[in-house]
Amino acid sequence: MRTFVLACAFAAIIASAYAACSCSKQPTTAQEAFCAADWVMQASIFAETFNKDRTEITYHVTRQGLFYKWPESRKEPFPLTVVSSTSADDCGEPKLFLGISYLLIGTFDSEGRMIINSCLTMPKKDGTASPSAAQFWLLPLQVRNNLLLKKFTCDAAEATAQPNAATAEDVTRATQTTTPAS
Fold first, then answer.
1. Angle at CA 82, nearest 5°, toward 80 and 113?
2. CA–CA dist 113, 151 (Å, integer)
3. Phi and psi (nearest 5°) for 115?
4. Is 21 a known ligand-binding residue?
5. Which 3 state secondary structure label does DSSP give 30?
6. The domain containing residue 41 runs over which residues?
7. How many domains is the chain partitioned into structurally?
8. CB of 123 within 8 A of CB of 27?
9. Residue 2 has what pLDDT?
10. Band of residue 134 on the pLDDT scale cut at 50, 70, 90
11. GO molecular function terms here (predicted)?
12. DSSP run (H or E) holding 108
């Protein structure tokens, strides 16, 4: 009996390894994440809903100033929502918390919905993949400054963020509308 239980446990571990999320390429730099996305925004989660069979979660968000790469041909939806799978096997975004400001990075699906997943997140400082959306105010200062001052670009001629450091005055001016509520 004990051997049977151990064999079942081993089989479950092997099966879960094959069913786990598989990303074709996760960004290793903030620039790669920015350029791989269809849209990037700083947003606070204010509500969440699930679809009927609980395979998708819709986060209702309040945009907080930053909104990049939005196609000019699209109107900004209201209410603003982003969708993710609830399954880690489908690379779903782990639980985002209400009231927290995140840097959300995503794509549009075939229906035009804004999608987030664990394959497209801002990488950690060491370049390793982050398993979840980054809380905006915990991002490295240089990344926040580059976002606030719109220093990321995806032109072929300019493949990296502008290296020049932002002045304190530039950052103060840019953050006047994006600081968290007290």
1. 90
2. 27
3. -115, 135
4. yes
5. helix
6. 23-138
7. 1
8. yes
9. 58
10. confident
11. metal ion binding; metalloendopeptidase inhibitor activity; protease binding
12. strand 101-108
Taking the CB of residue 117, how many other CB atoms lie within 10 A of it? 19
Residue 33 domain-assigned?
yes
Amino acid making up residue 169: E
By mean pLDDT, which of 6-15, 21-30, 90-99, 145-154 is the weakest? 6-15
- Residues with Cβ within 8 Å of 118's Cβ and at least 6 positions away in sequence, in order, are 21, 23, 88, 91, 92, 93, 94, 131, 132
Cβ–Cβ under 8 Å, residues 64 and 135: no
Instruction: Specify if 71 maps to a domain.
Output: yes
- Would you give the DSSP letter of residue 178? T
β-strands 101-108, 39-50 pairing: antiparallel
pLDDT at 160 over 60: no
Residue holding tokens 């953050």?
175
Q: Enumerate residues 6+ apart whose C-beta is below 8 A from 182.
A: none
Burial of 154 (0-12, 13-18, 19+ CB in 10 A): middle
Q: What is the CATH number of the domain that holds 101?
A: 2.40.50.120
Q: Residue 28 falls within a domain, yes or no?
A: yes
The answer to whether residue 178 sits within a structural domain is no
Burial 60-85 (b: 16+ CB within 10 A, else e): ebeebbbeeeeeeeeeeeeebebbbb
Q: Which residue has the tokens 């929502």?
A: 81
What percent of the chain stands above pLDDT 90? Answer: 19
